[in-house]
Amino acid sequence: MSSSQFEGGKVLNQLTSLGMVTALELMQAGFPSRVAFKELYDMYSSKLPQKLKSLHPRMFCSALFRAIGMSPNDYRFGVTKIFFRPGKFAEVDLLMKTESTHLSDMIAKVEKWVLRQCWRRLQYAILAYNKWRKIAAWRTNCIINIQKNIKMWNTRKIYQPRIKGIRTIKDSMSKHFDYD
Predict the structure, then answer these.
(1) Residue 158 CA to chain centroid, in angstroms?
(2) Nearest to 109 by CA among 79, 68, 162
(3) For residue 60, which of 100, 124, 117, 105 has the smallest C-alpha distance?
């Protein structure tokens, strides 16, 4: 290994580990603008009511984009950043800097979306719990059935010689009484 040569496999592995390949794929797909969740949240947190200030920055960004009517095709969420199509971040910034009446309507939409998301999560949690409860009951019935069959097999194994003996005695007695 020398200073003027590098190994392509190791370089590709390092770039993949750093997430550079994914970032380049996003940029090639048409998402050149990017901003961190926290930065976007901090830009607008001073204008938010107390209810929305407690939101996680990623959740706030998702609610904000839904409220302003931005298509999900115009942005992508990364691990720590949001990637925008060309010109879409400027559109978001322009909408947020408009007059306060429009901003209050937008905040009301965000609150409504957050409430709807909470309701959907609650519904999903209830459905998941019911499904889990049914699976647990089914597994319990399966375990009981397995235990029942094992007990039956053990009992049959213990009493099988006695049953065979009784059958042979009955057979021999039936043959003895049939010939008389």
Answers:
(1) 51
(2) 68
(3) 117
